[in-house]
Amino acid sequence: MPQRYATNPAQIPGMKTEELRATYLIPDVFVPGEIRLTYTHHDRIVLGGAVPAGSDLSLGGYPEIRSDYFLEHREVGIINVGGTGTVTADGEVYTLVTGACLYLGRGIRSVSFADADGETGAQFYLFSAPAHTAYPAALVSPGEGTVRELGDQSTSNRRTLNQYIHENGVKSCQIVMGVTQLHEGSMWNTMPAHTHDRRTECYLYFDLPEDARVVHLMGEREETRHLLVADRQAVISPSWSLHSGVGTAAYSFVWAMAGENQAFDDMDAAPVTDLR
Prior knowledge:
InterPro entries: KduI, KduI/IolB_isomerase, KduI_N, RmlC-like_jellyroll, RmlC_Cupin_sf. The chain is mostly beta strands. 3% of the residues lie in helices and 44% in strands. The chain has a single domain, classed as Jelly Rolls (Sandwich). It is globular.
């Protein structure tokens, strides 16, 4: 499991493009026939993808987390961004259609991923954080979470936000997770940009055409940088870093956070007039 070490704002001014990408961008989230995970020391989050590609995949333990099995001391949120698939957790089978979210709590020993019968192309996105207690497993289908309509077409950020794991939805220790879909003709995922100084947030961009990109803004408001992000690539956004993004086409993204609290609206805006 590759590791990304924690960084601080003072490092940003000296970073060149390749160093920024090596530190904050995860380019190969989904690899057919593999579970590929990355460990970031920002809030000790593990994120990555599982792509069965016709075979069952089992989520085992890893030396980097010093556990006999993956969820011994952790919880995980799973969102399927591919074709219909199944997740089996301690013998219980959950069917995830495209866009469905599954929460698995601490203490579940056996987790495996597969394509659904007669289906191919399931792609499971995993976001995991340490957990101090166990909450029940819960499956949420698309549209069954808390749905919020945000933004305006006049500012190119009309979007539908689906909250799945959050303080008023599926219960967890730390994880807050959901999916946002931009409306046709909208490109900004949020503006003004903002920080969550108490939580790390990770973005997975998807539903992006092959020849399109998202310009993901990061850094401090007085020292911004950007990453060019392709379809199904993920970005680690430390708690001190602002985040916002604009695409060359409409797209969707999974947002997921872990840290001090679970209040979705606990954010500090960075007005565009303050950005440098």
